[in-house]
Amino acid sequence: MTHQSQFVGFGVQVELKDGKLIQGKIGKATSKGLTLYDVKFSDGGTSQAFKVRSSRLKDLKVLSVAQNTHGNNKHSRNNNNNNNSANNAKENNKISNSTNHSRTVSSTSINSGNNRQKNNRNNNNNTGKDDWQNDDVEKIKEGADFDFQSNLEMFNKKDIFAQLKQQDEIDPSDRLVSHNRKNNDNRTDKISSSSSNKNNNYEIDEMVIPDAKNDTWNQITHKKQDENAYDDFEDSDDDDDDDEEFEDANYFPITKSINITHLLHSAVNSSNEDVSDDKKDKKTDNGELLSKLEQMILGQTSNSARTKSVSNFNPTLTNPKNKKQIPMATPVQLLEMERLTEETFHISRNDCIDNNFALNSSYYIRQKLGGESRLTVGNSNPEPLVVVLASDSNRSGSKALTLARYLCQTQQIRVLVVFTCSMKEIEENNKPLKANIDVFTKCGGKVANDTKQLKSILSTLNSPIELIIDAMQGFDCSLIDFDSNQNKIINMINWCNETIEHNNVKICSIDVPSGYDSGSGLQNFDVAMHRVDYILCSYTWPLISLSNMKSIISHNNHNNDGNVILIDCGIPKNVYLERNSLRKFHGVDTFTTNGHLSLSL
Hints:
Helix content: 25-40%
Distance between the termini: 60 Å
Number of helices: 15
Largest sheet: 8 strands, mixed
């Protein structure tokens, strides 16, 4: 253990745990205990030396400080200088047993050493350099203790602060700390009590900017101003007379002259228009049509340069919880699941599947936006803003509108929807969608007519965009199907790409990013999404084409979250037993306690 030589010679009074008092001078001090000499006990007894273990110590009081550690030759074993003096005396053939002679040699040696140190110090001062390495430590020890109290008395804090306060002419209400008040407008010059201040002050996670929530959000309206306008902004598509036709074969890697959506719509329309008793025959015809479409997609996908052959190409994703493989689906398989759910199990898409997807997706998005710690009524910050880009005529558009309603109905998230067509067209040609939009706006959502109005609205809000939901395309159609609105769609995609490039904004797509073919994953439109942070699978299962889009779907997840989110949409498992091609989905564990499952490509 280290020897604490700086305490040698100190007079102390030691109190033991049993109540005894012992006085003496320290001869040795270590972490294990003290060795005292000239010991006096409380009962009158004395002793030349006494050891006290540290475990027995209760208190220690310093009675005196050693004035001269070199003068006591009696205990020269603790003094290096005296030992050196004795050695020097032996070397000079002096009488080693003479106490007086030892003292003489010791003092002579010390004085000569001090003179040499003084000369060195003077030389250092002459050269202008501080030789702090050669400071005389012994002299510092011999010097008087630093008087803290007298130095503290030289600085009277009360008088100085009183003088500063008297010279201060700033109004207390104008100070920075006064802005940390929830009732800033009603504050007075008097300081309120500490309890009221505690309740009045903003918390560390609250917005100090006054009236942060009082922007133009509540003034946004979707009602008509006159018969020809849906809002104060004109439709930018009316000024675009040049409707380009996209006939480049490079944009049609799968269906060059035939479109899946047209065939499906024609099959559905024919079944709805012709009502007869031979329903079984029509179901068979529809099944054959879907089978042919599936074979066509798989056959042409196998010939693509960016995909493998069908026999060897059966991609899966891994469930991080149980390490099991999650199968992936084709667009036709998803449509077949929907058809069987409606016809065999009598579970409608609009009332059940869409609502289940929207509800479970809303819980996932709320968690991504901050969860319970942020989405509270007492939060003085503006609510997070979500922008939804939706279509008016496909499955992803209706799902996105329902999702938007679930997000905004708690008044804790701001949701702004922009459709691929004008609101005037929806009002005239799509009454069911118009009714759903009315419900959405009653729940607190807002609707913008185009990107021009969207930019104008965003410039007046205090809350920046935090999430963009891409629902313009989905898996059941392509953007080339929207002949009359392609210019508006291009503007929406370009705005989206610019926003995520220059701002810290997340973007998610429903089933597949807009601008890419859902069967192959190749771009089939003039413009497409440059980056997507994650995919929401509206029919639970991810598309096979996502395997070819790894460069588009981001992998920068700071919370180790996945980029393919399986959402429980309420399809019964027995649906998968109705077709051999769907049986691979039956024996897979997906949702037990949560309505979503995060996977990574």
